[in-house]
C-alpha cells in the first residue's frame, strides 16, 4: 500500500513512513493511493467476529508490506484488550430504529481511544524496529490530548507535548491530561483557542528546525493511522444491524471531519451506507458548506460541546481531494485561496454530487440541552453534549425511517457535567473506578502565550525526557 499527498507534490510513502510523517512535505494530508474494496460476501463473513479480529480484516490492506500479519494481530489484541466493555463498541437502542454506538469504553472515555491506543502501540513497534526517537506535538479541543497521552505514555522512544486552549476544555478533560506524569509527557495550555493550537502544530511540521534533527510525529487526525482505526467501527455497527444485506445511516458529531471521513471511506470500501449526517455545534463551517456550498471561516465560539469548537476542519481537505477527482494541483489552489481569503465555494456539480451522501445540521447549546433532557426522559439514557448533537441532527435530517440510524456516541457524559447540569437532568454523575480520584490528583501543566516561538522553545528545552534537544 502506497500513500499520496492531497496536494500532489510530496513523494508517495509506505505505511510505516506515513505513520511517522503526519503532514506531507507539500502541506497536504496523506491518503491511500488506491482504497481497498471488499465484496458483500467478504463483509457478511465477518459477522460475529471479536472486535480485534474485525479490525484486522478491515485494516490489514493499509499496513501490508510494513507490518507482518502476526505482529499486527498481536498489536490489535493488546489495543482493544484495555477497553472496559467486552463488546468494545456496544450499540444501545434509543427507539425502534435509532441506535447509539457507544465509543467511550476506552481508558479516557472517548472515541479517540480507538485510534490512539493503536497509534501508541504502532509507534512503539516501528520506532523500536528503526532505533529512532520522535517528538509528538498535538493540539486538542478536549479528548485527543488525554487519549494521546494515555496511548503513548509508555512509549520508550517518544516525547509528547499536547497543546490545549487555556480554560476552554472541561475540567474532567483537562485533568485527564494534566494528572498523568512522566518524563516524556508535557501539557501546554495556550492562551488562545483550538484553532490557534492547531495552527501552531501545522507550522511546526512545516519547519522542524527547532527540533535540531529530531522528527515530529502527529497524533491529531491528520495522522492516517487515526482515520484507519476509525473505519472499523462503521463495519462493526453495520454488521450488528443486518449489514451488508441492508444499508445503515450514521449521524456523526464532528469538528475536524476525521470521524465522519472514516465513515465515507467505509462506504467506498464496500459497506452499504445510505446517509452520513454532519452534526456540529455553533461553530458551523461544515454545516454551512454541506447546506449551502460556503466554506467560510468565522469567529470561533466556546460552547458546551468543546471537542467540536473548531473552525478549520483539517480532514475536510481529504474529502475535497476526492471531490476534485484527486487532482492535487486543484486542491492546492483551493487551500491557498482559503488561506488568503478565508473561504471558498466549489463548482456546483461537485457540491451536488457530495450532497447525495451527506446532510448536516448545526445545533446550539440550548438545543443540545433540550435533547439531553428529552432522551433521558424517553429512555433513561444520559448523553454527553456531542452525542446529543448527533441525536438532534439524526432526527432532523433523517431521510428514511426504514433504514437503521446509528448515532456515534463519542464521549461519556461524566466528562461534561456542565452540560448535563444545564439540561436539568439532575442525575449524579460518577467517574468510573479507574478515574474515581481524578479531582484529588496533582496537576502539572505549563501556561504559555499564544506565540509559536515560545512553544517551540519550550519543546526544544524539554524534549528527550527532560534533556534539551
TrEMBL record:
BP GO annotations: threonine biosynthetic process
N6-(pyridoxal phosphate)lysine sites (modified residues): 112
Q: Which reaction is this enzyme known to catalyze? A: O-phospho-L-homoserine + H2O = L-threonine + phosphate
The record, for InterPro entries, names: Ser/Thr_deHydtase_PyrdxlP-BS, Thr_synth_N, Thr_synth_N_sf, Thr_synthase-like, Threonine_Synthase, TrpB-like_PALP_sf
Q: What is its EC number?
A: 4.2.3.1
EC top class, as a word: lyase
Q: Which UniProt keywords apply?
A: Amino-acid biosynthesis, Lyase, Pyridoxal phosphate
Instruction: List the Pfam families hit by this protein, alphabetically.
Output: THR4_C, Thr_synth_N
Domain annotation Threonine synthase N-terminal: ranges: 2-80
Give one GO term, molecular function aspect.
Answer: pyridoxal phosphate binding
The record's listing under Gene3D superfamilies reads:
3.40.50.1100, Threonine synthase, N-terminal domain
Pathway annotation from the record: Amino-acid biosynthesis
The transmembrane segments are none
- Tell me which cofactor or cofactors this protein depends on: pyridoxal 5'-phosphate
The entry's family comment says: Belongs to the threonine synthase family.
**Name of the protein:** Threonine synthase
- Which organism is this entry from? Pseudomonas antarctica
Amino acid at each position: 500500500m502506497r500513500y499520496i499527498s492531497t496536494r500532489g507534490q510530496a513523494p508517495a510513502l509506505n505505511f510505516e513512513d506515513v505513520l511517522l510523517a503526519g503532514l506531507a512535505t507539500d502541506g497536504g494530508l496523506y491518503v491511500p493511493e488506491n482504497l481497498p474494496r471488499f465484496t458483500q460476501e467478504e463483509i457478511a463473513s465477518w459477522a460475529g467476529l471479536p472486535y480485534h479480529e474485525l479490525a484486522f480484516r478491515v485494516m490489514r490492506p493499509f499496513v501490508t508490506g510494513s507490518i507482518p500479519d502476526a505482529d499486527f494481530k498481536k498489536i490489535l489484541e493488546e489495543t482493544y484488550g484495555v477497553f472496559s466493555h467486552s463488546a468494545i463498541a456496544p450499540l444501545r437502542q434509543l427507539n425502534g430504529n435509532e441506535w447509539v454506538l457507544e465509543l467511550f469504553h476506552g481508558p479516557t472515555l472517548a472515541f479517540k481511544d480507538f485510534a490512539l491506543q493503536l497509534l501508541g502501540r504502532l509507534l512503539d513497534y516501528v520506532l523500536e524496529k528503526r532505533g529512532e526517537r520522535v517528538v509528538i506535538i498535538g493540539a486538542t479541543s478536549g479528548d485527543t490530548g488525554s487519549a494521546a497521552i494515555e496511548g503513548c505514555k509508555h512509549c520508550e522512544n517518544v516525547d509528547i507535548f499536547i497543546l490545549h486552549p487555556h480554560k476552554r476544555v472541561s475540567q474532567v478533560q483537562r485533568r485527564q491530561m494534566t494528572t498523568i506524569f512522566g518524563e516524556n509527557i508535557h501539557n501546554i495550555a495556550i492562551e488562545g483557542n483550538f484553532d490557534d493550537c492547531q495552527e501552531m502544530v501545522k507550522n511546526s511540521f512545516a519547519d522542524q528546525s527547532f527540533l535540531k534533527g529530531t522528527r515530529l510525529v502527529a497524533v491529531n487526525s491528520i495522522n492516517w493511522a487515526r482515520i484507519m482505526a476509525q473505519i472499523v467501527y462503521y463495519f462493526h455497527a453495520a454488521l450488528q444491524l443486518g449489514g451488508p444485506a441492508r444499508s445503515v445511516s450514521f449521524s456523526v458529531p464532528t469538528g475536524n471531519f476525521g470521524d465522519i471521513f472514516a465513515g465515507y471511506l467505509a462506504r467506498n470500501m464496500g459497506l452499504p451506507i445510505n446517509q452520513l449526517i454532519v452534526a456540529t455545534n455553533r461553530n458551523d463551517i461544515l454545516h454551512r458548506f454541506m447546506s449551502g456550498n460556503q466554506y467560510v471561516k468565522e469567529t470561533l465560539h466556546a460552547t458546551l460541546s468543546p471537542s467540536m469548537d473548531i473552525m478549520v476542519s483539517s480532514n475536510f481537505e481529504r474529502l475535497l481531494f476526492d471531490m476534485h477527482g484527486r487532482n492535487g494541483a486543484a486542491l492546492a489552489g483551493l487551500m491557498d485561496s482559503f488561506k488568503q481569503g478565508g473561504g471558498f465555494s466549489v463548482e456546483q456539480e461537485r457540491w451536488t454530487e457530495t450532497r447525495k451522501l451527506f446532510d448536516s445540521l448545526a445545533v446550539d447549546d440550548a438545543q443540545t440541552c433540550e435533547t439531553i433532557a428529552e432522551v433521558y426522559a424517553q429512555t433513561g439514557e444520559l448523553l454527553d453534549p456531542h452525542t446529543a448533537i448527533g441525536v438532534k441532527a439524526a432526527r432532523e435530517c433523517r431521510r428514511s425511517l426504514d433504514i437503521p440510524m446509528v448515532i456515534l456516541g463519542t464521549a461519556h457524559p461524566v466528562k461534561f457535567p456542565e452540560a448535563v447540569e444545564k439540561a436539568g437532568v439532575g442525575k449524579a454523575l460518577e467517574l468510573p473506578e479507574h478515574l474515581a480520584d481524578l479531582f484529588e490528583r496533582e496537576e502539572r501543566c505549563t501556561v504559555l502565550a499564544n506565540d509559536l516561538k515560545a512553544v517551540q522553545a519550550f519543546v526544544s528545552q524539554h524534549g528527550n525526557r527532560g534533556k534539551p534537544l
